[in-house]
Amino acid sequence: MKKVLTIFPKTNAAMSEAPLGAKLKVCAYCRVSSASSEQMDSYENQVAYYTGYIQQKSEWDFAGIYADGGITGTKKEGRTEFNRMVRDAQAGQINLIITKSISRFVRNTADCLEIVRYLKELGVAVFFERENINTLSAESELLMTVLASIAQEESRSTSENIKWAYRKKFEKGKVVVISSRFLGYDLDENGQLQVNPAEARIVKLIFREYIAGKGTEAIADLLTAMNIRTVTGSAKWQASVVRGILTNEKYCGDLVQQKTFTEDHLTHRKRKNRGELPMYRVQNNHEAIITREEFDLVQQLMAERAAQYGNLPGDRVKYLNRYAFSGKLVCDHCGATFTRRSWNCNGPTKQIVWQCRTYFKEGKAACSMKAVDDITLKAVFVRAFNKLYKHKDTLLKRFLDNVEKGLRIESIGGHDRKLELAIERVGEQMKALIRRQIKDSSETLEFQTEYDGLKQQLEKLRNQKNELSGDDSRLAEVKARTQEIASVLEGQVYIMEEFDEEICSALVERVKVLTPTHLVFELKNGLAIEQQFIKERGIHGLQ
User: Where does the Resolvase/invertase-type recombinase catalytic domain lie (predicted)?
Assistant: First the structure.
């Protein structure tokens, strides 16, 4: 009599990696997104549940619980336990990860698929209980793409709802103090600001010294010399910290809300609110440390001093670029920009130089690039400009010819249309395949294989089209910028005899400093003009 033995399928590819009879190494991942008492109770319940669940399975070997509490799920960075779990999976300590749902695992679609695919390559499965998805199954990726996108949208919606709730509180004058630590104030059990008498004396000293005529750096040096600690415990005071105290409206009893906002719910990157969103000022919200008159006087003095030294906040771009070479000199050794400095020489005059920021801040060990004399730099630009001016027609035409040749523009027209037709054709094939799968879902594995193949084709075709479109737009941009440069050159009647800051700003994108006597001027259309010269010690300019 025939005897039939059933050979059961392997539900987890990771089992094939283990020796015969070896147990499956199983762990669980738990997470809650806030540190509230209710959420932390849920967190503890998850840990207890999965510990018992895994340990009761005789065919499983308990590989531990990885649990992040009070952490957002929209990005994997900063999730200590999650990242430790992935490292342990790399080390072969895990075969299977169990988690409650996709949203508990990660809410960012791109991160979710990236991590799952990576774990899949390692032979590690992830099982999502709520969705009943095992990531090693054939149909899992298609389902996960849809479900992870839904989880990401839920996260975005939740983030928007929280923002809306905060704004409604702000509009009604309800105070929300985000930070728990300000110099001069403590937060009481109700979240209200209470004056800290010892620290308040430091705040009063800072305002008093500024009104008396001291600058922020001088006040910072004074506080450091007096062995007074900052609110974070640092013994060294910085001018920026003093400036932050002097401009903080809390010290006159007011509270401005929504001074910053979260730009993206996925990255959680915060930005200073410069008018993008409304701000809400609550006057007389708490006990003041200084009078309103003192606070207003300090703001007035700061504005006057800023105007005197050309450092108005509203004119920041102009201030940062008030010299033709500001932000444009780049060190070829370390990649840092150069800063303009004034050196005291023997005698009443000062020498203006441009110095690598790395060399200036960290010393010769970090970067050996020496300073470039300002007069010499301007003289070299004059020489580079005159070279361009004398040969402008030849140089600009040759440059554009080389750009066109490099981008292979000749073949774009016909090939671009062929790519568009191919993209349409593959798109229709994908739609037909999905319609067929909806009618008959019995051939899931074949569908997934064919779908992935078409998807790769479509991605490849789109990349090719984007490259061609990008080349076309890049050429148009280069031509436009070259025409602008030609217009500047045509407006010059003779060669340049002395440095012209306006022309330099109009032409130069950046200056690569190879050595203090070897510079490359890169113009705004991409054309580079290289200049080498001899510099004698103690002599400014060119010889």
Answer: 25-173
